[in-house]
Design a protein that fits this description.
Structural class: mainly alpha
Number of helices: 2
Largest sheet: none
Distance between the termini: 56 Å
Shape: rod-shaped
Strand content: under 5%
Number of domains: 1
Number of strands: 0
């Protein structure tokens, strides 16, 4: 009878050990996945920030180009054409700025929801 009790204890110990090993393996597997997800998110956010910076640089260059175009074409345009040109440029620039602001707000929200 004493041997049977010892066998049961050994089997229970093996079961606990196997359960612990399985639990550790699951934890490591999850940790590896979480690490990959963090790397992917970091790369995505880094790329997104570079895209925003590129867009802002592009917008800045575009504004300078438009200003030079306005100065250059002004003598050749009537008052009505100048007004139309200004409205189109203003609308375009306003839309670009709102898009950049929206992208930055989205990125900020995305980072908060991802890392918090």
């Amino acid at each position: 009878m004493a041997e049977w009790g010892l066998i049961q204890k050994v089997q229970a110990s093996r079961a606990r050990c196997a359960y612990t090993v399985w639990g550790n393996a699951c934890y490591i597997h999850t940790y590896i996945h979480a690490t990959y997800i963090c790397i992917i998110l970091h790369t995505y956010i880094h790329t997104y920030i570079h895209t925003c910076m590129h867009n802002i640089t592009y917008l800045h260059t575009y504004l300078h180009t438009c200003m030079h175009a306005c100065i250059y074409f002004k003598p050749f345009l009537t008052d009505g054409q100048q007004t139309t040109f200004r409205i189109i440029l203003h609308t375009y620039i306003h839309t670009c700025m709102h898009t950049c602001m929206h992208n930055i707000t989205y990125l900020h929200t995305y980072m908060l929801h991802t890392y918090v």
